[in-house]
Design goal:
Oligomer: heterodimer
Number of helices of chain A: 0
Number of strands of chain A: 11
Order of helices and strands of chain B: EEEEEEEEEEE
Distance between the termini of chain B: 35 Å
Largest sheet of chain B: 7 strands, mixed
Shape of chain A: globular
Strand content of chain B: over 45%
Distance between the termini of chain A: 41 Å
Structural class of chain A: mainly beta
Strand content of chain A: over 45%
Number of helices of chain B: 0
Largest sheet of chain A: 6 strands, mixed
Chain lengths: ~120, ~110
């Protein structure tokens, strides 16, 4: 059964820092990996999707990488801003087993960027 | 304006009552999903539907029921059999296309049992 782990659970940084959020998954049979942002009391906003055949995706100050063989993905946020404060979730779309076609979520990293 | 809408935003239920949460999408997506989110836990899949008039149980389907009579609508009923229904409920939709299966989420409904 797929398991997704995010490290760290929480992160507090000063404004302007570059930072890395980590996501690991146990089963490499995935179609893609998605990164989401969730503000308190809100739904999830899709940030980046990396297909299993891709190595990375970029959107503005965000860059996500995928190493399927090692079961890892990272989300890099450049020049962090207070508005980046939120919970960041990664999710793997499973391509096999009993979880076929389903997303398995990590528990998230709570990011606080202080001025 | 394309997107996913959920209603109501807040819902209060008395013990023993069934309640229905609404989810509508105008993205023309084939697949729709219901998740439950509890503090300190990741999202857990309740039910999903790949096509109209068909749906499958997710990881925590007990005490819940769904229907998919229209492509754009996927309501979730929380029955009195659900022992601990207080949670944040999220609906999502996607096109069922392998590597391009990108899920988009609604704003959520917070259910509280009184």
């Amino acid at each position: 059964k797929q398991e997704v782990t995010q490290i760290p659970a929480a992160l507090s940084v000063p404004e302007g820092e570059n930072l890395v959020l980590n996501c690991s998954f146990t089963d490499s049979a995935i179609y893609n990996l998605q990164w989401f942002r969730q503000d308190p009391g809100k739904g999830l906003t899709s940030l980046l999707l990396i297909q299993s055949s891709q190595r990375e995706q970029t959107s503005g100050r965000l860059n996500a990488s995928l190493d399927k063989s090692s079961g890892r993905s990272t989300l890099y946020i450049a020049a962090s801003q207070p508005g980046d404060s939120a919970t960041y979730l990664c999710a793997a779309l499973n391509a096999g087993g009993t979880s076929y076609g389903k997303l398995t979520f990590g528990q998230g990293t709570i990011l606080t960027v202080h001025p | 304006d394309g997107g996913i809408t959920q209603s109501p935003k807040y819902l209060f239920r008395k013990e023993g009552q069934n309640v229905t949460l609404s989810c509508e999408q105008n993205l023309n997506h084939d697949a729709m999903y219901w998740y439950r989110q509890d503090p300190g836990q990741g999202l857990r899949l309740i039910y999903y539907s790949q096509i109209v008039n068909d749906f499958q149980k997710g990881d925590i389907a007990e005490g819940y029921s769904v229907s998919r009579e229209k492509k754009e609508s996927f309501p979730l009923t929380v029955t009195s059999a659900q022992k601990n229904p207080t949670a944040f409920y999220l609906c999502a939709s996607s096109n069922w296309q392998g590597m391009d299966n990108e899920q988009f989420f609604g704003p959520g409904t917070r259910l509280t049992v009184l």
